[in-house]
Amino acid sequence: MSVRDDQLSSNGSGALNGGKKTGFFRSGFVIALQVILDIASFFLAHLFTLLNRLGLRYDADLFPAYLRTICIQVAVYFLFFILFSLYRTLWKTAGIDELARVGTASVLAAVFGFLLSEAIQNYSGLPSLGGTASFFGCVLVIMLTGFSRVAYRFWRRIQGGMMGSEQWLRAMIVGAGEMGSAAIRQMSEQPVLRMRAIVAVDDDKNKHRRLVRGVPIRGSRKDIPTLAEKYKIDVIVLCLPRVDEKDRREIIRLCSETTCAIKTMPSLQELMDRKEPGSMRNIDVADLLSRPEREYDETGIREYILGRTVLVTGGGGSIGSELCRQIVRFDPAMLVIFDMYENGAYDLSQELRRKYPDVENVVEIGTIRDTKRLDELFGQYRPDVVFHAAAHKHVPLMENNPAEAVKNNVFGTLNTARAAMDHGAKRFILISTDKAVNPTSVMGASKRMAENVIQYMNSFGKTRFAAVRFGNVLGSNGSVIPLFQKQIESGGPVTVTDKEITRFFMTIPEAAKLVLQAGAFAKGGEIFILDMGDPVRVDDVARTLIRLSGFRPDIDIKIEYSGLRPGEKLYEELFLDEEKPDESGFPGIYVGKVQSPPPETTRKNLDWLREQVESGEDVRTCFTALIKTYHPENKDKETGTEG
After folding, report:
1. List of residues 6+ apart from 47 with CB closer than 8 A
2. What is the pTM of this model?
3. How far apart are CA 228 and CA 235, in angstroms?
4. CATH code linked to domain 165-283
5. Which of 5, 99, 156, 541 has its CA 20 to 30 A from that of 587?
6. What's the Cα-to-Cα distance from 554 to each of 29, 253, 430, 491, rounded to whole Å?
């Protein structure tokens, strides 16, 4: 970790963790101090108006009685300040809204206090301060209590300004709108951030050469690298709540050309989801690769999940576990998590029980290769909906263990599909991959065969069988992003197979939501293909990750190109040549239309493949005979791609 990133980390989470130990006591002290100052303000304001009314003369006969009236006024003001929640607002956030509530509470307290003092005068003889004194007392209360609140913010700013300039991180603001203004204010009012806004950029030329909270706006996005060097910027803060995907990627790319750390203010969606509203956070690769948030037809999803038993094979894995998290939101009668590795499945089950105590979930351990275990499982729970996420997916490992890929990905899928059909499941959704398209790897070919299995099984019974095909998922087990992050943490080098290699990427939640959505459209036999946007160069991802970590590619962290691994393609595809994808009627999901082999042909192919694998024949030779688009050793001379 670089010195700057270490400073950013210590100024963020470290400070917060330390604050948790004393935060409760500090908060109580601040509230008590505010109450004392307010009561003193109430008393002094009315005492001054009283003395002014008496001509600044002390009357020994009347003064004690007036003091009792003032104490009643103090109690009334204090009550109204409590009713307006003025002791629940943090001093450091006191602003116009806080002062407006102070004014409203004071005016109402003055009116109520005057009426009360008049009634008490008639009943007990205690003197009333009078309307004029009550009015001026109210004005003084607003001035004194408002000043005590705003003064704290000025003190924090002055206190921060007393720190040495070498302790501050010099920040650039990208986006000089309301969110940019909020970010600058946050820096000035929270010394713990140890940031100072030096310059801002905005694509709106009308803002150029102007100031936002005293910070000059010096250019647009194209000037980010130049200005970062000119002003010796340490951290760039993105304040882009409404920018679209293409522009956001371009801006982050420009930022990544600098050596600055990059932070971002929350998007509008994050603000709506109440994810640390208003707080800066570190940027991650998901921000670089993200697409506009899609709306989902939750009604359609709920219709086939609500009140039903749902089984997820591979439920403890990256995709399977996120599917489970999404499924429980739609109130199934029961969620069955099936996996051969107990730790991940157990942790997920405990998490779901904490968050969704009303949804029953069970963990069952076993393998999809075991037909007897599957029959027991389906016979016991009789699931209505099955999401089949269990698979071997690591390309190089499956090249070295091709028979295992067939046993698990092909015949494991067949076993699970037959159990689902035999026990009356209504829907069966296979999780497939873009590597099944024109496969060059054993893993990709095995998943293409699994898609054939699904279309074959759809020819029998009433179960709706379908597949969902998508590409790489950010952060999933075995994916490239966690590998890069570990390599960067250890000081490099970062290994990329080829400088031109590209991949489709999507986030785990996005993939899971689209899988559920595709399940709602399943009529039987479809291969749904998820729109993953434009492919991204893996080399760009690696370089961006290095820069986001505060290092310079090829200088601080080396990048090494190892060459394509066995079975690996330079680029991936989402559609077969013979597929003619149709829009599903829902954004982000297509239906690939491909003529599948007749059921009898598929049955014979599967029987033959099983015999060949059991006899030890070369799996690649078998796939070459069964899948016409499988070309493990062909290389396109123009593109350098396999397949």
Report:
1. 70
2. 0.64
3. 9
4. 3.40.50.720
5. 541
6. 52, 17, 41, 12
